[in-house]
Amino acid sequence: MNVITFFHRFLGPPPRPTPGVRAASQLPIEQRYWSEEIDTWLRTHRYQQRIDAPYTLEWEQAPLRLVAGGALCAGQVLNGDWLWTAWATVEIDAGLSVVHRFLADNHYWAPNFPGHMLPLLHDAANPQAELCMRALLALAVPADATTNKCLAGCFDHAVFDQRLTVFACIDCGEDLLPDGEVLRALLDVDAPSGMKAPEVWTDAWLADRTYRRWQEQGVLYGFTHHSGVVVHQKKSWMRSLCVPPDDLDGPRSRGCYFDLALMVFTEAALSVLASRSSLATAALAHLRRVFPTPIDQGRALLTLWREVCARDLGGITASSTPSAKKAQGMHDD
């Protein structure tokens, strides 16, 4: 079963206060993943839900289940406007080629692009009913994430890049981990047209965008500023790291890769907004005040992803911690 989370960043209303949760410092160190400040930020103004009766859909006859959703408010960024990141998490039971086509079809959803209203998803319980990606996000946003108006009505106010960002956890089974053209395709980046040796371009492009520390153990990571993917060989425990945590008061390792993607995509939006808003600058400074995680692999993954965003967008300052290349040779703390 492959897990895919779609993120959309948009401007919306201020959040309502949310109930407090236990501080990370109250948990045993082996249950923590995030630093105290980032842990607090991730749980402040965060609304999420696990869909206990998953909404079952179909895509290319492959079963698709909406299993979780939510929204996070990063802070006020413009007069009267707050930055929100909403997400919808689905499971798709299909092979690598089908998953790739699903990602390719949905990475570029955008409110101002006619394709965002195309009925891509079919309701399994009612074959005549069809949904677009925007409707899927609306289904996934919890009811308690509304204030004076529903967040679903704010989806058109995308921030800087109307791309629907994606983080995917893909089980390739007994097959070899994908590399080269296959991995680049999963990240949804096309080689420049007219190239005589696209494989050379692909190898160079992937060199600083992949985290290969655990490749021999069957896990490979890849990143762009609009996508992330972790491909593994039958690591059943990987799902719990990549799906939003069921309980915000539970062990911080649950959903840690999901939270990593949530941080990166939100930080990218804040970074671009900071060029025209002192409020966004303050929100970004709060997020960067301390390095988010004491876990070695978490530091390496975040460093690499920030460096990728800095190259792609030119708006994110790479971390001052050791480079991800060096970090890949470290041992876990």
Report the uncertain regions.
318-333
Globally, the shape reads globular
Instruction: Determine Rg (CA atoms, Å).
Output: 19 Å
Average pLDDT taken over every residue: 82
Number of helical regions: 10
| Helix fraction bin | 25-40%
Largest sheet: 10 strands, mixed
Order of strands side by side in the largest beta sheet? 6-5-2-3-4-1-7-10-9-8
Structural class: alpha+beta
Q: How many strand segments?
A: 10
N-to-C CA distance: 30 Å
* Beta-strand content estimate: 15-25%
How many distinct domains?
1
Order of helices and strands: EHEEEHEEHEHHEEEHHHHH
Task: Give a verbal description of the structure.
The chain is α+β, with helices and mostly antiparallel strands and 333 residues long. The chain has one domain (2-290). Helix content is 30%, strand content 24%. The chain contains 10 helices and 10 strands. It has helices at residues 36-43, 96-106, 133-140, 181-186, 198-207, 238-242, 256-273, 278-288, 296-313, 324-327; strands at residues 2-12, 46-59, 62-78, 81-92, 121-123, 130-131, 165-171, 210-211, 219-223, 227-232. The chain has a 10-stranded mixed sheet, with helices on both faces. Helix 7 runs antiparallel to helix 8 (278-288) and helix 7 runs parallel beside helix 9. The longest helix has 18 residues, at 256-273. Residues 318-333 have low confidence and may be disordered.
